[in-house]
Design goal:
Blueprint: E1 6-9, H1 11-24, E2 29-33, H2 35-39, H3 43-50, E3 55-58, H4 61-70, E4 76-78, H5 87-93, E5 97-100, H6 103-114, H7 118-127, E6 129-133, H8 145-157, E7 161-165, H9 180-191, E8 198-199, H10 203-208, E9 216-217, H11 233-236, E10 244-256, E11 261-262, E12 268-269, E13 274-279, E14 296-301, E15 304-313, E16 322-325, E17 337-341, H12 347-353, H13 358-363, E18 370-373
Helix pairs in contact: 1-3
The structure holds pyridoxal-5'-phosphate.
Length: 374
């Protein structure tokens, strides 16, 4: 038997979350964001759950090609555009839309188009659509307003379809600068006289800033049932459900006496007789090493597997194992099923104990963890 850890990708939950986006942004199309290997879930693995989307947005051209291989014929958008001029050939062959966020990308595109005949340019204009990205205040990627207007004019001269995009820095938190409102004002001023579709909303804006939905929304984390704020309750109230269940089993049990220590560094000392379950999951699987004692884990009841108990981690997370206190649960033993995060333990709850957010834990699932679509 192989090591029991696995990430189950929950197709029905992905569908539920996508439907929820649709219900909130019912006048908009949806770019489902599947960068970082679909936030760690696997592009192939999420496809069945997300294929009712209007388009997929991602970073790597090889992932865009993978989508085509899987059979997706609809829109695909490279959120950071091209990283080198020669990628344009592939974008053209595979009908992939690109973001232009920097003038260097515009130069590559111009050089590429200038090497073509007028008729070839016409064919390109029917196959590739450009999304100009404005830096409206986040100061990461994006053209400034002068560059933006210049690029727009050039692209229109090539008869390309041009759309408009910006990204919010703080849609998940009120009171931080730049605010959604200030970024929206900057963006609106630049694009007010320009034709083309508009896209601004990430998950937080889909949920909490309905005036930002426009023609296309770009949800990522909410599709996977985790929260943009890192607070699980913020999304549970909307009925969003986890798309990944990270599960494993108890592979050993230790009975300890008062004063015995657990694991590397002896970080936990038993204050009475305790039973400790050893779970086949460690930091080499993507479980965060920094979590504190007391992080929630759910273990099923061997006598009645649909029922279970919340138990807590004790001692240091090691490469391949964690240790949990099962003293009060006699029905838990070797072979008991364990959920590290998923339907009983929100990934955001574990992330909080590691001083981070669910995004990071999901994306960090290690390649050695088998993903299974259910
Ligand atoms: C440009 C862009 N749009 C949309 C998203 C989706 O964001 P979220 O996962 O917060 O919904 C991201 C992710 O960082 C992004 O970079």
């Amino acid at each position: 038997m192989e090591r029991p850890i696995q990430a189950s990708i929950l197709t029905e939950n992905l569908k539920n979350n996508l439907n929820f986006v649709r219900s909130l942004a019912n006048d908009s199309k949806i770019w489902s964001v599947i960068k970082a290997n679909a936030y760690g879930h696997g592009i192939r693995e999420v496809y069945a759950g997300l294929k009712e989307t209007d388009g997929f947005a991602l970073l790597d051209i090889k992932d865009a090609c993978l989508l085509r291989e899987i059979g997706w014929a609809g829109p695909v958008l490279l959120l950071e555009g091209i990283f080198a001029k020669d990628e344009l050939n592939e974008c053209y062959e595979k009908n992939i839309d690109i973001v232009i966020h920097h003038s260097q990308q515009m130069s590559w595109l111009s050089q590429w188009l200038n090497a073509m005949t007028f008729d070839q340019q016409t064919v390109v204009s029917q196959k590739i659509c450009i999304w100009l990205k404005l830096n409206s205040g986040m100061n990461r990627l994006g053209l400034n307003s002068q560059e933006y207007l210049l690029c727009f004019k050039k692209l229109r001269d090539y008869r390309l379809k041009v759309n408009h995009l910006t990204h919010f820095a703080n849609a998940d938190e009120i009171g931080l600068e730049p605010s959604v409102e200030s970024q929206m004002n900057v963006f609106a001023k630049v694009i007010e006289d320009l034709s083309g579709d508009v896209s601004t909303a990430n998950s937080a804006a889909v949920l909490w800033h309905h005036n930002t939905h426009f023609d296309w929304v770009r949800p990522g984390i909410m599709l996977y049932g985790a929260s943009p704020t890192g607070i699980s309750e913020d999304i549970q109230i909307f009925g969003l459900k986890p798309a990944m269940n990270l599960s494993s089993k108890i592979i050993s049990v230790q009975d300890l006496n008062e004063g015995d220590r657990v694991g590397y560094g002896g970080q936990y000392t038993a204050t009475s007789k305790i039973r400790v379950g050893i779970v086949a999951c460690g930091y080499a699987d993507g479980y965060p090493r920094v979590v504190s004692n007391g992080t929630q884990v759910w273990v099923s009841n061997s006598n009645s597997p649909s029922l279970g108990f919340y138990v807590k981690t004790i001692g240091r997370v090691s490469m391949d194992m964690i240790t949990v206190d099962i003293t009060n649960h006699k029905t838990i033993g070797v072979g008991s099923d364990v959920e590290l995060w998923g339907e009983h333990v929100p990934v955001d709850t574990v992330a909080k104990c590691a001083n981070t957010v669910g995004y990071e834990l999901l994306c960090a699932i290690a390649p050695r963890v088998k993903r299974v679509v259910v």
